[in-house]
Each structure stands twice: as structure tokens, then as C-alpha cells.
Amino acid sequence: MTTRRRWLPPLLVGCGMVALAAGFGAIMALGARQPPRPEEPAERIAGLHPDQHPDESRFYVPQTARVSHGTARLTFKVAGRGESSVRDFWRTYELKGAPPRTSDSSYGDRAAGHRREISVVYKKLPSDASRLQREHPVDNRPATITVTAGPT
Q1: Beta strands in 28-113 (DSSP E)
Q2: Which residues 6+ apart lie within 8 Å of 65 measured at CB?
Q3: 12: number of CA atoms within 13 Å, CB side?
Q4: Are 144 and 120 in contact, with CB atoms under 8 Å apart?
Q5: The model scores a pTM over 0.85
Q6: Is 126 in a helix, a strand, or coil?
């Protein structure tokens, strides 16, 4: 019995040190600067980076994003239901005017010091889609949004 008691304090000290080291490691990992996401430069050029819209709590994640010769091109997919719609995209990024209501329409403005063009292509509904779905506002249908921004 005395042998067990002799090892108990060093064991508790060892466990405490491991717990402290794990806690310190977790704090350091949380405080470490995260590497930028690959789409961040394109979002910044296009004026769509979350830091450029501090009042918003949610954002759209681009499916593709690239920068070539200073021009950014981002592609977003919206589901057309719930909070994923062209109308919500317009609201989230504080775009002026109403969203385009027809496919292949575009909207142009200036953002982050660059000329920006936003085009919307709405997904065509099948002919056997329900009447309710066909009557749904077009800017709430599934769509692909392409944003191109760069120097003029």
C-alpha cells in the first residue's frame, strides 16, 4: 500500500504538466495566424471579402476563384431556396438595384477601386416542374453568379 502512495504525487504532477502543456498548445494554435484561403485575393479585388462587409454575419463561398493579370473571376452557385438565392446574394454584398431577372443579364459597378461586372445565369426549370415552382420569383431560382473585377 505504501508503494502506491509514493508514486501518486509524481503521477498527479505529471498528469498536471501534460494537461498544462495541452492547454498551452491549444491556446497557441487558436492564436496563431491562419494562412489565407486561396480565394481571398480574388474576393478582395472583387469587393466580396467578408472583411469588406463587416455588418454581415454570413457570406457566399465561391466555387471557383482565380486572379489572372490583376483581374479576379469568381463563380458562385446559389440553390434558389431558403437563404441561398440571387436576391440574398445582392443583399449580402450590398449591391444597388434589383438583381437581374433574366439569364445572361449583367450588372456593373465599381468596388474596391476596380470595375466589377456580375452576371447571372438562372437554371432552367424542367417542363414537368410543379406549378408552384414555375410561379416562384425568378431571382429565387437556382443560379450561377459570375463576378469579374479588375483594373479598367
Answers
A1: 64-68, 71-78, 105-111
A2: 38, 39, 42, 43, 72, 73, 74, 75
A3: 6
A4: yes
A5: no
A6: coil
* Mean pLDDT, range 15-35, rounded to an integer: 84
Distance CA 105, CA 103 (A): 5
List, for residues 96-141, the tens digit of each pLDDT value: 888 887 777 788 998 878 899 999 998 876 666 666 455 556 667 7
Instruction: Please give the grid coordinates belonging to residue 99.
Output: 438583381
Instruction: Give the Cα separation of 121 and 4 in Å (integer).
Output: 74
Q: Which residues are CB-contacts of 124 (< 8 A; sequence separation ≥ 6)?
A: none
**Cell numbers linked to 131:** 406549378
Query: In the structure grid, which three cell numbers stand for residue 79, read together?
Result: 440553390
- Whole-angstrom distance, CA of residue 25 vs CA of residue 1: 36
| 121 in Cβ contact with 53 (< 8 Å) | no
Rounded to whole angstroms, how far apart are CA atoms 2 and 8? 10
Residue 112 CA neighbour count, 13 Å, CB half: 23
State the Cα angle at 112 between 140 and 54, rounded to 5°: 65
Tally of CB atoms within 10 A around 66: 14
